[in-house]
Amino acid sequence: xxxxxxxxxxxxxxxxxxxxxxxxxDFYSTECPPCEALAAKYESLSNIYGDDISFVKIFRQGNRDxxxxxxxxxxxxxxxxxxxxxxxxxxxxxxxxxxxxxxxxAMLPADKAAELHGKIEPVVTNTDVVVLGGGPxxxxxxxxxxxxxLNTIVVDTALPGGYVATTHxxxxxxxxxxxxxxxxxxxxxxxQARENGVEFxxxxxxxxxxxxxKSLVVDGFETIEAKKIVIATGSxxxxxxxxxxxxxxxxxxxxxxxxxxKYFEDKEIVVIGGGNSSIEESLFLSxxxxxxxxxxxxxxxxxxxxxxxxxxxxxxVNIMFEHEPREFKKYGNMDMAVxxxxxxxxxxxxxxxxxxxxxxxxxxxxxxxHDNLELDQWGYLETDETMETNIPGVFAAGDVRTKQYRQIxxxxxxxxxxxxxxxxxxx
Length: 427
Description:
alpha/beta, FAD/NAD(P)-binding domain, 3 domains
């Protein structure tokens, strides 16, 4: 095993962890993308901190009893021990390098931690193409580019898969007879990219991007320089920021009617919003649901007149004007509630429902970019038909670019076009 790391079994735990001064433990599993994303960071930091802190790895699947005893239920899970006692935060899932360093630094005197930080040497990596974003658009671009024998690195601040990984099931993606769980479809895409030679920098922090020089800084120490860049950072639903939203996203709260509407056949649902997307998606949901309650903060809808006429004529639909959601609750499987406030009276009430759809807009993920990118009126990237932006050599694909429809298939199309264009220019 590379780095200053020791792999142990449950029988060694007392000797190698509890009896030592300072230890960090990584419970990992096989066929685990988050574990693979952590491995490189763990190895790198072991070479820096390994003389002061013992680095240990434990195969969770082969040491289930110990994992259960320590309440380790996911992989990877990183635990910190000092003088036989667990200390600091438990880290799990897409673990950032900075989170790991924070836990290690906490076990050392401040001056020692500062000294070790000084040993971190900057690294420069040269590649043909950097793809920023590991959703369907970015992964598709990566597959095409790698198959064209171009060195390609996919950089993602989360784990590969993008927004589709949070979708319960996907039944409209070509090639699959049975509906696929969103995270599995994402997994298939990322593994295909990896198999074709795409490199990944996953669950990383991107501190600087210079689109003109085609360079970016990852995790504060690695500078990646490329000939071309594909921006495939996607977009995210505009949050309501009320209690229950984060907890029940994907578990009763959905942001995609096309993805999840069919699971509410003959059910009652609540829709939040009154703009074009909300009303048009409600009309689609009406094909499945037996009752739809639309909650809208204003006294009139903001959707186009054609959509308004159709929604007012739909007998399944009831619109609560001048109301806002204040909290989401979950009582059981397909048993939700929305606490709403009447903006005129201030009175609050609870609406029981089988599910909730939120359509209050999306936000393109462009915060890391400070170059003069050309955007449309809604803040999405403008491109030409080859997916190139106004900055030469910088392309955009997927939900981050201006387009009429945002679906997995349209993201894959964008990634394909961008990659083929780049391949012809570089090969």
